[in-house]
Amino acid sequence: MSDQPQLSQEMINDFVVAAHSDLDKVRTQLAEHPALLNENAVWLETPIQAAAHVGNREIAEFLLDQGAPLDICTAAMLGQRDDVAALLAETPELVNAVGAHNIPLMFFAALNGDTAVAQQLYDAGTPINADSDSQSALHGAVLGAHVAMTRWLMDRDANPYAVDFEGKTAFDRAEERGLTEIADILRPFFAVDEDAGGGA
Question: Is the dihedral of CA 110, 116, 121, 125 positive or negative?
Answer without folding.
Answer: positive
